Amino acid sequence: MNTFEEVVEAKGHLIDSGIMSQILDRVIEHKCTFEIEKFLVGKTNDDYSLARIKIQSHSSESLKELLDILVPLGCYLAEEQDARIEPALGSGRVPDDFYSSTNYRTYVRLSGNWKLVQEQRMDAVIRVDPDGPRCGKLRDIRKGDLVVCGHAGIKVVREFKDRERKDFTFMASEISSERRVEVAVRQLAEMLHQTHAARGKIVVVAGPVVVHTGGVEGMCKMIRGGYVQAFLGGNAIAVHDIEYALYKTSLGVQLETGMPAHEGHRNHMRAINFINQYGSVAAAVEAGALQSGVMYELVKSKVPFALAGSIRDDGPLPDTICDMVEAQARYAVLLKDAEVVMILGTMLHGIGAANMIPSWVRTVCIDINPAVVTKLSDRGSSQTVGIVTDAGTFLHLLKEQL
Amino acid sequence: MNTFEEVVEAKGHLIDSGIMSQILDRVIEHKCTFEIEKFLVGKTNDDYSLARIKIQSHSSESLKELLDILVPLGCYLAEEQDARIEPALGSGRVPDDFYSSTNYRTYVRLSGNWKLVQEQRMDAVIRVDPDGPRCGKLRDIRKGDLVVCGHAGIKVVREFKDRERKDFTFMASEISSERRVEVAVRQLAEMLHQTHAARGKIVVVAGPVVVHTGGVEGMCKMIRGGYVQAFLGGNAIAVHDIEYALYKTSLGVQLETGMPAHEGHRNHMRAINFINQYGSVAAAVEAGALQSGVMYELVKSKVPFALAGSIRDDGPLPDTICDMVEAQARYAVLLKDAEVVMILGTMLHGIGAANMIPSWVRTVCIDINPAVVTKLSDRGSSQTVGIVTDAGTFLHLLKEQL
Amino acid sequence: MNTFEEVVEAKGHLIDSGIMSQILDRVIEHKCTFEIEKFLVGKTNDDYSLARIKIQSHSSESLKELLDILVPLGCYLAEEQDARIEPALGSGRVPDDFYSSTNYRTYVRLSGNWKLVQEQRMDAVIRVDPDGPRCGKLRDIRKGDLVVCGHAGIKVVREFKDRERKDFTFMASEISSERRVEVAVRQLAEMLHQTHAARGKIVVVAGPVVVHTGGVEGMCKMIRGGYVQAFLGGNAIAVHDIEYALYKTSLGVQLETGMPAHEGHRNHMRAINFINQYGSVAAAVEAGALQSGVMYELVKSKVPFALAGSIRDDGPLPDTICDMVEAQARYAVLLKDAEVVMILGTMLHGIGAANMIPSWVRTVCIDINPAVVTKLSDRGSSQTVGIVTDAGTFLHLLKEQL
Amino acid sequence: MNTFEEVVEAKGHLIDSGIMSQILDRVIEHKCTFEIEKFLVGKTNDDYSLARIKIQSHSSESLKELLDILVPLGCYLAEEQDARIEPALGSGRVPDDFYSSTNYRTYVRLSGNWKLVQEQRMDAVIRVDPDGPRCGKLRDIRKGDLVVCGHAGIKVVREFKDRERKDFTFMASEISSERRVEVAVRQLAEMLHQTHAARGKIVVVAGPVVVHTGGVEGMCKMIRGGYVQAFLGGNAIAVHDIEYALYKTSLGVQLETGMPAHEGHRNHMRAINFINQYGSVAAAVEAGALQSGVMYELVKSKVPFALAGSIRDDGPLPDTICDMVEAQARYAVLLKDAEVVMILGTMLHGIGAANMIPSWVRTVCIDINPAVVTKLSDRGSSQTVGIVTDAGTFLHLLKEQL
Q: What proportions of chain C, in percent to the nearest 5, are helix, strand and coil?
């Protein structure tokens, strides 16, 4: 009955990563059957395992769908073949069976050699350029570009959760509001120290709640201390930061006293109007008109930043990038070679950034809403760990450790 | 000591709306003092009240700040004067004491006459054109445009919660997950019926969760029934709707069976690639290639739609507006003269739309997260009422009533 | 048509408290009509207002229902009469129109004199004892006890939000996770200082999340510093505190390292077994067997505590009160004369305590879930203010201020 | 260096259940090392796997702690020995190394024979009675009772997620508010049908939110249809159900119209007073005084129920069990042999019930707050699946399917 079959192999920490379990689950869910032809188990924590699995299905369609799912999990066809390369049909148009990338390290077999894919990111097309394969956005594909299709000749290497990293246990923890925030902050501070000392790149992605909850001082200290190599956000964090620098309010709340200034939404519009007269945030800083805050420190420390616009923006500031294709491009440039990405109180820009980074970048999401981190994980950014607390308190605690 | 003073008046349902209480609270919070010189209370529910209040402060600065807050609450200077009009200083540049608008009905006194402000929306500048005052975005202001500044000659009319609307009690309810969803849906259905019968405009703002939670069929029925005059969303709802129409999955989940297709994120990229070959959603519908779903029904029923891009988009679809200034302009056009706005499972586009509409538009936000509605209210869209449930279930219940 | 009528009066800060607005809203909602016969408005913030309102209804039943709601809001019948007193019909049995108390200060008119009700709490019966009226639980009523019925002769005094309390602005704030936690903590610390200096009573109500999130040290410091006069909780906080003192884990998590000890639920059972051999927590402390933690400090500082059992308890500890009637009685004793009540991470015991305290006790609820505070407010404990953060971080910040 | 060692074996669906991965993770986390001496993998989905693992540690203490965690995961000492049995030291007092049970099926080796443990539940002691081993609460242990200690002679059988259950895919889904509620309800209805047809036992655990959200009618239909064999709750669900039956309000909200009856908390006290005159709910039903609602249907259909008291109860009703030890005992009796347990809108009673049931009982938790289900899972009730929606809507949808 199940007359269609394919033999796949997988290699790595198959058991302790849980990958083997996932592979078999997926086979069953697709109403296919499996037979494990070979299974060499790593004897100790340092050894790899190897599995060779025969998969059978009642239809070639269903088998293809299953392979669509197994290849990203690290399975590759046992019989080694080159990847199939097809020319793009037009701008942003590729054959329907194009390979859609994950954020895991990927190799493609070309002319008998396995080549590492460059600029790894998820939901991309793998374009084969003269100098090798690389991830590209569908929208950047042009007619005739060569793209990888089908399942042959593709190997995905899934990192397993790095169990040896004894120092950063919080990275192994599940998301929960019942965990000890202090411990996680202490370990994160240590990670930032190490990255900083090794001149690694730290990127901060932040939402306006950093300002509302009193995190400006902490963020400024991070920037001055050299712990931020790039800063990503939207129009709102910049507007509220500048509002706070100029008028000591944030969305009209007087941050020093907590006194609610009901309906006092006017100051954020004043802040935009204020910057408009200088033409940019940097110009306002240089003119001595803006003298404190996150944006001020970024300019002073020459940390590059990108503010992406959104449908809910007021203003926006002259620095805000209104075109989303351009904003994504700028985000991608600033995220390149990041080693640690900290996402503070912003689901929108957090997902935006997480979409662009490979799986091996350490991503930490700080949010008072546990659902935000869960959502990041659901989208495939499973490397993301979360600390459930408000951004202001987090930065206060972190400041003490840096 | 408090030698700076100003006498203001307010008129309307001051007590039952809670406005009078708010006015006095704000005075005290600003460390100013008040004396109620006159207070004529409406005897019955139909009568207006009138208050005349002398406010004293120790500094002119503090008095100005207080007036910044009292004017939006409906207070106006007792001594009638014309509004102060100043020319804009440049593109997107106005004097620092420009009046920042609310979403409440506003009148401006010009040459002794009170004129209704057109295109009322919040966080705008009031520009005085030859044919009268209107709200304008700061970014659209050009050098020399005349804008309203200061506090004189401005009257804001706050609607109070419409207590007579016995039929729509859910609109008076506080947001809570402990309320009866069925009752709220029944009343909302009745409101839609009445609006539809009177040829009023209903605008839907929807996020992709409508698709994930199984709301496509219900939404399609609404569109076919003529209950949707404009549709606002982002790239994601369109992509996942088309993914579902073509492949019966949504973010890789098989919606009919609930079977999770883990890591099966490929189909939404296929959907984008599919539409790319036609050049637009409408072209795909016309070619007979897209044959069902929300986007299909919108095209078939000739309901105008706007898809705003965002930093987290994949693709995007050719129909998605990538420039945020353009997207906001398109949203504003489609929201014009709306009588009912339904926001379904999207905070981002919900706030984007709510920013643009005047306070008298009935806005209903359906979200499983009570915090979303609270956030909408916090931003000043106090007319927004919430129904706490998931979009799919909501549309299932609503479908039964339409 | 509306032939049934009643004239009521209300006195106090009717406008700035929002009470007047509420009274009129309730009349309309009950489809009754009102006529404001007199309204003397307080000229300044220090003056009271007085309202005299004629209410008309189409049925005597509906008028009675409305009065059920207006009397707790501070309205009293304009025509002064004694309260109606009826004998209880049996144990826990009173006439159906008994007056159900609020937590606001209440006076009852007896033989022409207004008498203050003792032991004010909500959802109680007012029993008239020889020495005056007092609140009593329905279950404690015995046949023949005299209880207040109907609406005549009852005056409820609603405190309005104390606008003069400039120092504690956080108490006026709405619940939001977008506020600055540090400011609220600083002000709360100041409130605790003042209460402590004046030898006022501070009661802590705490859940096990205090232990899980690393708050033990902070709580111990509060106890040693004399900032806790009584401690209320359940079985779980004591078990996990002792588990942590003995084994350095909490629900099996190693708190110092954050290392998750999956499935390591055994230690909390060991802790119970450990205490069982001494017969009580106090005995284990005295024997030198338990040497640290919250329970240890309570015993050492002779702070009385009450642990209420629940359906989900393991053990329970010998100290846990398994009978709920007894546990409520013990809670009530410890809450008597409290000036500040801090509720930390427990909805169950928080509502239990809040049910028992009068409205003028300052109640602060610290919880990472904003819904918990909202729920406390919904139940009528509107005096409760919330700080949205996790208990461990909160106690860490508070510790720095004490 | 690691001179302490132990060889364990595990058998079953080790890979597809993820158990093997967990075992190895725990070894590493405890800084021990492993060597897989044997690993026979099941070739197909129907075959078991067998693993034999040598574990080494630097201390005997750390090895013991690790075994505390591995035994519940299904590992047993490779060298077969009888379980070690020790006499209890007193009432509620056992040796410190007693075995604390899980809710998974467990066998104990006595005199060379593996015996199934009766009355399996978590956090219990295994007592060896003359007729065999059974789980017992620590508090029920008496001096001299024989209890299982250490790690030898204990086998825990972990069920893996039942992948063949194609009909109930929702049971395999992760908790998310972005899933399709309708599909889950349809499958749950089918499960209830099958259980009902096979005369299996269905137990409902419900909180008062069932009444507030309009679920009374749906629940009544379930009871009348024979889909409820036992009903567990607290005082509140009964009080509010009776309040609704008598006065059509729930916490003062008129459920039919959704009209909020602010401050109208009096009716729930009237309901208690009403029942008090009859002495019990059943007596009120028999007297014809209570004629509708959930409690009415339970009495009429002779479905046994248990109402557990809590510290936050008003009243309580005469039927409410105030003693928690007695309440737990009554819950345990009603849960015995349950096949399906439905938990509706109550974390407190849900955890109470979940603590008592073995892992093979299908448990479904319906709650609008995803955190409730997560919390149930965290506590070890990993068999629990969740449907994120409000109870009223859920019962409305379910009613259509039954």
A: 35, 25, 40
Burial class (CB in 10 A: 0-12, 13-18, 19+), C60: exposed
At B355-366, the pLDDT tens digits run: 999 988 989 999
CA-wise closest residue to C181 among A210, A183, A348, A400: A210
> What's the complex ipTM?
0.91
D1-78 topology per CATH:
Alpha-Beta Plaits (3.30.70)
Distance from CA of B144 to the nearest CA of D (A): 50
**Integer distance in angstroms from the first to the last C-alpha of chain C?**
64
Query: What pLDDT sits at residue C360?
Result: 87
> In chain A, where does the domain assigned CATH 3.40.50.10690 lie?
166-401
Residues in a beta bridge with C341: C203, C363
List where CATH 3.30.70.2690 sits in chain D: 1-78
pLDDT at D3: 82
**Which of B278-296 are b and which e, b meaning 16 or more Cβ less than 10 Å from the residue's Cβ?**
beebbbbbeeeebebbbbb
Neighbouring-strand partners of residue A366: A344, A387
Q: Profile chain B (402 residues) by mean pLDDT over runs of 10 residues.
A: 86 82 83 86 79 92 90 92 97 95 94 96 96 96 97 86 52 62 89 95 96 94 98 97 90 60 72 97 98 98 98 96 98 96 95 92 88 71 75 91 88
Please tell me whether residue B320 adopts helix, strand or coil conformation. coil
Q: How many CA atoms lie within 13 A of B235 on its CB side?
A: 25
Q: Where are the alpha helices (DSSP H) in C304-369?
A: 324-335, 347-354
| pTM for this prediction | 0.90
Contacts of C43 in chain B (CB under 8 A): 35-36
Q: Is D167 on the interface with A (CB under 8 A)?
A: no
Q: What is the token pair recorded at C4? A: 């049934």
Residues 6 or more apart whose Cβ sits within 8 Å of residue C18: B18, B21, C160
Q: What pLDDT digit, counting tens, does each position of A229-249 carry?
A: 999 999 999 999 999 999 988
Cβ atoms B37, B47 nearer than 8 A: no
CATH 3.40.50.10690 fits B166-401, yes or no: yes
> How close does chain C come to D215, measured CA to CA in Å?
20
**Backbone φ/ψ region at B395: left (φ over 0), alpha (ψ -120 to 50), beta:** alpha
Query: Mean per-residue pLDDT for C371-384?
Result: 68
Q: How far apart are CA D86 and CA D146, in angstroms?
A: 5
* CA C6-C11-C15 angle, 5° bins: 105
State the Cα torsion C162-C163-C166-C171 to the nearest 10°. 60
Q: Please give the Cα distance from A284 to B299 (Å, whole number).
A: 47
How many angstroms from the chain centroid is the CA of residue D36?
A: 34
Q: Which residues of D touch C319 (CB under 8 A)?
A: none
Q: What integer is the mean pLDDT of A204-233? A: 96
Where does D80-160 sit in CATH, by number?
A: 2.40.420.10
**Of A16-20, A59-63, C180-184, the least confident:** A16-20
Residues of D (311-370) whose Cβ lies below 8 Å from A: 370
Q: Looking at beta carbons, which residues of chain D come within 8 Å of C26?
A: 262-263
Tell me the two tokens of residue C226: 């004399």
Q: How many contiguous H segments (helices) and E segments (strands) does chain B have?
A: 13, 19
- Selecting from C21, C35, C42 the residue whose C-beta is nearest the C-beta of B16 gives C21
What is the distance in angstroms between the Cα of B326 and the nearest Cα belonging to chain A? 9
Which two three-digit tokens encode residue D60? 């005997």
**A312: nearest CA in chain B?**
B352
pLDDT digits (tens, 9 = 90+) for B301-341: 999 999 999 999 999 999 999 999 999 999 999 999 999 99
